[in-house]
Design brief:
four-stranded mixed sheet, 12 helices, flat, single chain
Length: 388
């Protein structure tokens, strides 16, 4: 990569910006100042015109910094060049040559060369036939050696190894077991008893939590629909003089909690249900219980309107009625450059009523409403997949 390539890329960024400004009016004419909904519109136009995609992370890496210190991948350069009206990155550079710049025709490999390189990369070099034969012979030699019968020691003719039967007098024996002192017998059983006690003690110490703990099963029910909640719930267990312990209750499954305590305090929360604090005396509480949660109707409607693509006019009117004019709206980003961005009510409504594939990944994190029943706080994010 040369410095001239970096200068060419800055030229390409300017032409991409000019091409977009012909049909759209973003919040700022400078592409390095785009964010949020401007980037989403640009991604949609890039997919439509160049049949390609640029992730939000790549946009921040290469368009928010000027001048850049490294080039994107060649496939991204080709997509941006096609968006600007050129055949490829090579074609763009050929039409923007600097003084005394010589562009080699070999910089752009043809399709046959690319296919040949891919086939070579996929194929690993075959093993050396001589090496393979030597390994095979070594394995066969080891296998044949393992199956050889063991040599028996045949020395019957040697007098040193023959059993000699001496005729003559026979010796009588008698049992001396009864002559062992009683002390040794008692000592043996004493050690056995001590070992058994130690083994039981170690077992009690290792499994005391399982022996003295109880399991409790809590199923969470929608209070209005009388059905299991098909969404993840955040469960915080509160203990005296300890920080809260956070658990996740899976959809349509009971939350299982194992404890030795005599009381339980847990806070159950969800973006679509109102937070509830539950207290239980575990000495008299049943092991299985159904707990009703009151749904957050505003958050559910907000989620529905964000996902639905039907009747956009009615959808905008409903959102305008539900959301307070002074609402605080936060968009949370997955990238490291921008963590949180705020926006006003109308900009949020424009975003969620845009017919875009990005809204398939919109997630409502948290909502709050005021005394008048209007939503005065929304926190959401649009999850991105960098692999696409």
């Amino acid at each position: 990569m040369s410095d001239l390539d970096l200068l060419h890329f800055e030229q390409l960024k300017n032409e991409v910006q000019t091409q977009y400004l012909e049909n759209y009016t973003p919040s700022d004419d400078d592409i390095s100042k785009w964010k949020g909904i401007d980037i989403i519109y640009f991604q949609e136009d890039l997919r439509k015109r160049a049949k390609g995609n640029i992730s939000e992370k790549s946009f921040y890496t290469y368009f928010k910094t000027s001048p850049v210190t490294k080039l994107p991948r060649i496939d991204m350069l080709n997509i941006l060049s096609a968006y600007a009206g050129y055949m490829s990155w090579y074609d763009f550079k050929k039409n923007h040559l600097f003084a005394n710049e010589i562009l080699s025709e070999t910089d752009e490999p043809d399709g046959e060369q690319i296919g040949e390189l891919e086939r070579i990369a996929e194929k690993s070099p075959p093993a050396d036939p001589q090496e393979k034969n030597s390994e095979t012979r070594a394995a066969e030699t080891k296998k044949s050696t393992e199956h050889l019968p063991e040599k028996s020691d045949l020395q019957i003719s040697t007098t040193d190894n023959q059993q000699i039967n001496k005729p003559g007098s026979s010796f009588s024996t008698y049992d001396t077991t009864e002559q062992k002192p009683t002390f040794f017998i008692l000592k043996k059983y004493l050690w056995l008893g001590i070992s058994a006690i130690l083994a039981v003690s170690v077992g009690l110490l290792g499994f005391k939590d399982e022996l003295f703990s109880r399991k409790f099963y809590y199923s969470f029910i929608d209070a209005d629909r009388n059905s299991k909640i098909n969404a993840e719930l955040q469960v915080q267990i509160l203990k005296d003089n300890e920080s809260p312990i956070l658990y996740v209750a899976k959809p349509n499954e009971p939350f299982v909690y194992t404890t030795k305590s005599k009381k339980l305090t847990m806070v159950v929360s969800s973006p679509y249900y109102r937070t509830d604090t539950i207290y239980r005396n575990l000495e008299t509480a049943p092991e299985a219980e159904n707990i009703e949660l009151k749904p957050n109707d505003y958050a559910i409607m907000l989620f529905y309107y964000s996902k639905s693509l039907k009747d956009l006019k009615k959808k905008r009117e409903s959102l305008n009625y539900l959301i307070s004019d002074n609402a605080l709206i936060y968009q949370v980003y997955d990238n490291e450059t921008y963590g949180v961005e705020t926006m006003d009510k109308q900009r949020y409504i424009n975003l969620v009523t845009l017919p875009s594939t990005s809204l398939e990944n919109l997630q409502v994190i948290e909502t709050k409403d005021d005394k008048a029943g209007k939503i005065n706080m929304i926190k959401f994010k649009i999850a991105t997949d960098e692999k696409k």
